[in-house]
Amino acid sequence: MHIPDGYLSLVISAAMWTITLAFLAVAFWRANRRLDEKRVPLMATLTAMFFAAQMVNYPIIGGTTAHLLGGPILAILLGPFAGLIAMTIILTIQALFFGDGGILSFGANVFNMGIVGTFIPFAAFVAVLRLSPKREGMIVGGFLGGLLGDLGAAIAAGAELGFSSTFPYGPVIAMLVMMLHHSVIGVIEGVVTVMILLVLYRLRPDLLPLEPVVAFASHDLSTPTKEAF
Predict the structure, then answer these.
(1) Which pTM does this prediction carry?
(2) Angle, helix 135-162 to helix 71-78, in steps of 10 degrees
(3) With b meaning 16 or more CB within 10 Å and e meaning fewer, what string describes 3-35?
(4) Which ranges in 132-203 belong to alpha helices (H)?
(5) CA atoms within 13 A on the CB side of 95
(6) For the chain, which domains are there?
(7) Which DSSP category does 102 fall into?
(8) CB atoms near residue 122 (< 10 Å)
């Protein structure tokens, strides 16, 4: 899903940089106020894990790639703003040291994988838990979050590419191809998300969000117990 430099028009690149910087400003302000000492190590562990996972990718349309994101589980466990910061760290290292993505396209890549790829999964997880605040709701919400997060990020990337005059394919083809490949990746992402949630459910239930709806509304994170699910 990483978009290299030269594939986006300058107008779209500038717009994505502007939106992304605005989100990051809020995210860093929120993280400074809300991340506690229990979640910082979790954030570091998940960031390192999905940095490695994103390095396993395969090429698709016009030089872009398909791979796991990690945004869904980061958003569910840390909140979407902290998830955005973690994804930004991953993408920064990849762009600067591994040539995966670019500098001009960095704003778009962070927008796709760090904003769309975290806020959509978190919203899906919250919506499902409103209907079923049990273990089953956690499983269904985690899977849907992983699937929809990947698809949303893929659609956003396809739209940015397709509407750029520098890209050889139009928006319809670009979005369809991105959706096709990431529908498969999304299923895998959903399964991985659920697996991590279940491991924490058994071993560290205190790291699971107790009431994500309340947490999202109050901009805070609860200290849950296993009985929450």
Answers:
(1) 0.86
(2) 130
(3) bbeebbbeebbebbbeebeebbeebeebbeebb
(4) 135-162, 171-203
(5) 21
(6) 10-228 (1.10.1760.20)
(7) -
(8) 27
Amino acid letter for position 75? A
Q: Are 19 and 26 in contact (CB under 8 A)?
A: no
pLDDT in tens, 107-160: 999 999 999 999 999 999 999 988 887 888 899 999 999 999 999 999 999 999
CB 109 within 8 A of CB 91: yes
Helix or strand holding residue 46 (H, E): helix 39-54
Distance CA(30)–CA(42), nearest Å, equals 17
* Each residue's pLDDT tens digit, 54-103: 777 767 766 666 778 889 999 998 889 999 999 999 999 999 998 888 99
